[in-house]
Amino acid sequence: MPFKDEILENLRKKDVIYVSTLQGKGIRSRIMHFYADNDFSIFLASMKNDPKITQIISNPNVSLLCHIEEKELQDSKEIEITGVASLIEDDEERKRALNLLSQKSPVVKALLEAGKDDLLHCVKISPESVKYRVFKEIVQGLPPTVIEFPKMNFHSDWKRIKDKIKIWLAEVRAPFLTATIVPIVLGTSIAWYHTGRVDWLLFALTLISGIFLHMGCNVVNDYYDHVSRNDDINREFVRPFSGGSRMIQLGLLTPLEVLSGGLLFFAIGSGIGIYLAIERGWEILVLGIIGVVSSFFYTAPPLYFASRGIGEFLVGLNFGTLMTLGAYFVQTQKFSIEAILASIPPALLIAGVLYINEFPDYNADKEVGKKTIVVRLGREKAVVPYVFIMLLGYIVVLLSSLLGKLPLSTLISFATIPFGLKAIDFAKKYHSNPLRLVPANAMTIQSHLFTGLLLSIAFILKDKFYLSIPIFLLFLLIVLLNIQKITKKGKGIEIAQGSLS
Description:
59% of the residues lie in helices and 12% in strands. It has 501 residues and is α+β, with helices and mostly antiparallel strands. The chain has two domains: 2-155, Pnp Oxidase, Chain A (Roll), CATH 2.30.110; 164-492, no CATH class.
């Protein structure tokens, strides 16, 4: 192939290439570092959770354009490549691709040298055609040099179904559904502590209802953040912690699909909730109405709870106290002061998850009039309430256990204090740097998860207090190891940012 070597030689003169993909009915283009191998396979890399990687993989038909500028305009060249994108999962191929990319990209080079390449996703564009044009030939009306490659069916119907499921899992923000699982497990554990039994069918229905209502909340709020243009103008978000799911912004779901999905999830969750209210008592209906109304109108008109600075309170109420009390009531048909007190730490911590995730959204929220507490106080001053949110729950547990309102075994939840202290440290240092703040986002989530889990275990233990110390030590070790792991990833982000400065 006479022109192959010439085309490759020109491609390798450049470090970056224009990458264009479909975004819904539109086209999205960006510049990325690349490397072309001898078969015209193009390798790209970016940080994990980078929206452009998600979009490239979900809309795999890709067009690439490389412009080689020469001293004389007539000698300038253009190389257009169309192909299909796929995520590189084979370890050896990924290692080879990253080593090649490190010759072009300072970020990839820095992360490889620091042993932090696990922070990167690597994409391979398998070519279907390559067009090579020289400007003077275009003027003369000569056709481009074209190299065709066999078309391969990378994406079967089953693959498309699998990809669609992944898109919806991203839309409902599946990893954050622990915010529902934790309080429902806690409320059920307290019921076990008091009665010595659990109705597993009622537990399953409570959990399913809570999860569907949570998904409805996430999806509907995504829709209204799109309507208000909040997510559209947000350029400081850090997936998956802030800025919404981005499925609408990436063109992977239409606004109508998102709204329809959210309403469907609310309907399913509410339907199960009504059944539980009929079976167990009208009190469940009251709790459910409070939860549904405050969740739906979190960003939706006309109430706009998030814009009124009470969104954090409502999230803590719904995903802390109401869900814990609801799960307890479904099992026992009564309320308990212990359930209320035990729900306070998870309530505060899930409010903390929302709160710390609002720091990257500060500018976008401010521009659209979404007056969260962070917007009202400013990033630096907003760190102070975060400190109280992260630590107040432990004070409640300590006082309640000493006063005999909670079992002494609930003190094992103190194993998660290092999460809070380290997250506070990151928030103080990096409140205005969304990427460097990521460890605080991650540790706040894990603090909520592990604290809720330990409180549940404390009630399950009943009179087996002697098990508390080994459980405390085990979870303390797990927490410290996770802090080390998260901090290392944060160091990788620092290296990536530093490589561009």
